[in-house]
Amino acid sequence: MKTTRSRRRAFCAACAVVLGALAASSLQTAAAQQMQGKQAVVAAPRAPLAGEKGGPGLALLARKVLAVPLDGQQVVDNAVVLVKDGKIEAVGPARSTPIPAGYEVQDVGDKWLMPGMIDLHTHIGGTYDINDMVYLVNPGLRVSTSVIPKNEALKRDLASGVTTVLFIPGSGVNMSGQGVLIKTGHERYEDALVRAPGSLKIAQAGNPEGWVMGIGRSFMNWDTREMLKRGQAYAKRWEAFEKGTGPRPERLFDLDVFPDLFNDGPDGHKRTQVSTHTQMFQVVLMTITMLKGEFGLDAYIDHGSLGGYRAAELALKMGVPAILGPREIEIPTRQIIGWTNSDPDAIRGMGAEYQKRGMRMIGFNTDAPVIPAEELQLQAGMAGRYGMDFSNLEGVRGLTIVPATTAGIQKRVGSIEPGKDADIVVISGDPADPRKWVEKVLSDGKWVYDSTKERRLW
Known about the structure:
Layout lengths: L1 H41 L15 E9 L8 E10 L2 E7 L10 E4 L4 E4 L1 E6 L29 H8 L2 E6 L7 E9 L5 H4 E11 L13 H26 L15 H5 L11 E5 L2 H14 L4 E5 L8 H7 L3 E3 L4 E2 L3 H7 L7 E2 H7 L5 E3 L11 H10 L8 H6 L1 H6 L17 E4 L10 E6 L2 E5 L8
Parallel strand pairs: 1-4, 1-5, 6-7, 9-10, 10-11, 11-12, 12-15
Antiparallel strand pairs: 1-2, 2-3, 5-16, 7-8, 8-9, 13-14, 16-17, 17-18
């Protein structure tokens, strides 16, 4: 009996081994087949198309090109734009701009070409509205770690012609962290990245008053100034080390952004800027006098509404641009008057108020999703509707070259000029007219949106 049981146990064990081997073999075969299928997909990349890096050249023909450089000829009629290896190679009248042999020619007919639009205030680059509110000043936080390239919100943004955004943390504290400049049309972070840090976000009033037990503006200004002093000293130590006149400093991760803020890059300009959540006259005044006047930082007004335009003349004098939004108008309500200590006697357009005081570097933002990201074009339209003069393409410039220059990325984007990234929008007419629509978008020489093939709804 024991012998029979032993044989049965041995037989069952042998069966288990055989069945296990067969199962393992089956799984390995299935895995190998699956892997082969994946390898077949990965192993067959498409050849680069015209305009893309490594591909043949691309010639775009259009009735009108809004080139909008910072200075120089703003518009070219009946024009051709040459694109090669993801860069703009030439732009000029079709009659005098030869198209090299082998270039693919695409005629957009009566449509216009313009640079990709730029939004310097969004919270849609990844995880929504990052607010780490443990510390009132938190310059070490980096939103770059939460970027989700080409997420659904960025896809809609791209479909509206916005090709570059500044993704920044929220405004729950005075110094909420480092933003990142990214492009909207790329699948990989490395391809989407324009610059990190894109800015240091400072919010001087409006939301941080609610931090912990509630704080006032005097304390907020003092606390911000103390952190800036620490950062300035840290930046000076690194500058001395880089020049060979001092020892290598200990790296402090929470202060990493300050050498970029205080020290000049190879082009003689600061390597990044302060984007300042600032509104109301007294607060905008402090933005200008503390950040630019006292510390010499490249700072810009971000919001600038609710009476902030009363400081426009000082901002102009000190070289502080204004990127306006999401409020493009000021309304004389009792709540607004009581909160801001301003006394508007009419509905006022923010762009018009800054402009009439001499300001020329005026751009627009959405604070998305406060205003949907795809409505940046409408922000410019609102400014024009409420009195801003667009006779010299101020609306288009406020969507393109002004924010590019403000963010220090004007050598790459913001206008259609030779050597810049081929970020180009095909649009049905004046982009400051919200009735016009985006038909196609080119980013780094690659077609990343085509409304004739795909409609993105919101």
